[in-house]
């Protein structure tokens, strides 16, 4: 039994004095001591590189990643190895970013920041979140956390998930065609799967009404980037994106220069709120692992 | 009886078919028909100019302003004329702006907007609102609306008002010295009065802890601008300001260029949410006026 964790969680060692824990300094790609790893925690946001050496860990039993989405690591997990995600850890920070982008976009913060750079006091009237219809697409734990934050803003919230249900009312993907035209704001927080890849295509965007706002805090590839660029170029809708396809967004992408597009570089989950919550999850799951108990957040099939 | 309203509320005429309502086009300073006004509604954000001609209205009985703060019009109201403010009308939009500025400042939206202008994808970790202590100074209707919006964000909220009370727990101004050092975020939404003018002075700012954030959606003069500039120059705290002293903020003000200062040009209350709510207030108060009922939002003494 050997647990290998990234440097930022070095003090987990103190929680488990009897457990062999290898702390891997960030930026070091391979260390022969890692070969004995049975429970592996790739660094946060390390993507494909973080799981590049799993084949060199013959005793590997568990990979515990620190992101909620598993799309970019899933096919790198060897057969028989359990994959756990960080469901819940990023709820607070990512949901907060969804609301931040929504508010900043609606209330013209991008425009006002540009004016600030020119030292210009030029008040312009923008739209409120109050009285708006918000469609939250992806009603998992982050979707629920987004709803919790939106609750105080006098907006109407409609929930959508892969499969609809009645309590609380969640609509299914198959009802999107009717829901999209009614939404003033659409927030995307679905996992990236075969079903959701390119979900926001030309047809989806055409159904959004004039002046509507698309907020993506899911994965860039949930949106067809070329279709989004074409639609934004008409000025008909606006977008606020914490994720893009590809990432990093190339400096040549027209999205950067569009007045109706606000971009943050995939920082939704990366705040000080992450560290405390990630440490709680790691402590709980390593503890369960050492005791042979069922692990939390095991990824099985669709998620 | 003659009601004079700004052009943007022209369709109030339809609500009161039997009432003489004069619609005043914006930008026209004086129209002799205004002399008969008994119930006057200066245009929103018209400030001193909006109440410059009250002495030419000998029959004037009521001035209904469309802002919550009365500081800049109060001494222009003739003796015997009733002043009503727009308490409640701006709660949604202004509270929303308080949260928008808080989130945008914490989550680095200003920095990311600057990076967007350079087409640079450069992820940096910022602070979450989650887990923070927020001090809301000014617990009137907008203060309560701010709290309502903050409720979903996993932050701790402490309320302060002129006079403390127990249910719900609201601390008094006299307890600020002890509360300020504990706050990660301080949101100002007090009215501008003799007591609150310059309330945020050198002493107040010194008590804020390193890395704390000051958000002002009240009035610029609640903060001692020079003291704020000196404090921000140290980089010790950050600020997000929708109001400044003076307004407009001169292009020579160092605040514009400070990395730890986010500025919007007094647009907190000015959204489409305002129009619907202002129309409701005007309809109710004009109706009460025509029926001789007590008016809503009459300003008497401290407010």
Automatic annotation (TrEMBL), chains A, B:
EC class: oxidoreductase
E.C. designation(s): 1.1.1.81
Residues of the D-isomer specific 2-hydroxyacid dehydrogenase catalytic domain: 54-300
Secretion signal span: none
GO terms for MF: hydroxypyruvate reductase [NAD(P)H] activity; NAD binding
Domain D-isomer specific 2-hydroxyacid dehydrogenase NAD-binding: 100-268
Sorted UniProt keywords: NAD, Oxidoreductase, Pyruvate
Family: Belongs to the D-isomer specific 2-hydroxyacid dehydrogenase family.
Record-given protein name: Hydroxypyruvate reductase
Organism for this UniProt entry: Ferrimicrobium acidiphilum DSM 19497
Native organism taxonomy: Bacteria, Bacillati, Actinomycetota, Acidimicrobiia, Acidimicrobiales
């Amino acid at each position: 039994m050997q647990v290998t964790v990234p440097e930022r969680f070095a003090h987990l060692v103190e929680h488990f004095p009897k457990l062999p824990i290898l702390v891997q300094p960030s930026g070091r790609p391979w260390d022969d001591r890692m070969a004995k790893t049975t429970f592996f925690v790739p660094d946060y946001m390390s993507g494909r590189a973080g799981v590049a050496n799993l084949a060199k860990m013959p005793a590997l039993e568990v990979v515990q990643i620190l992101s909620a989405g598993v799309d970019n690591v899933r096919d790198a997990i060897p057969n028989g190895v359990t994959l756990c995600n960080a469901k819940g850890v990023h709820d607070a920070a990512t949901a907060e970013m969804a609301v931040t982008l929504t508010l900043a976009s609606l209330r013209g913060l991008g425009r006002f920041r540009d004016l600030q750079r020119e030292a210009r006091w030029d008040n312009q009237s923008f739209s409120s979140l109050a009285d708006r219809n918000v469609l939250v697409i992806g009603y998992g734990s982050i979707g629920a956390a987004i709803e919790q934050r939106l609750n105080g803003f006098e907006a109407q919230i409609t929930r959508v998930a892969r499969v609809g249900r009645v309590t609380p009312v969640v609509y299914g993907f198959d009802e999107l065609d009717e829901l999209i035209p009614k939404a003033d704001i659409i927030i995307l927080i679905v996992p990236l799967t075969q079903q959701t890849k390119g979900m926001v295509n030309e047809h989806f965007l055409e159904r959004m009404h004039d002046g509507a706002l698309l907020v993506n805090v899911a994965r860039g590839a949930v949106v067809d980037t070329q279709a989004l660029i074409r639609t934004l170029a008409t000025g008909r809708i606006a977008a606020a994106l914490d994720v893009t396809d590809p990432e990093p967004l190339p400096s040549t992408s027209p999205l950067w220069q569009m007045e109706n597009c606000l971009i943050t570089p995939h920082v939704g989950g990366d705040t000080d709120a992450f560290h405390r919550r990630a440490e709680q999850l790691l402590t709980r799951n390593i503890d369960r692992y050492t005791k042979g108990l069922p692990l939390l957040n095991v990824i099985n099939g669709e998620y």
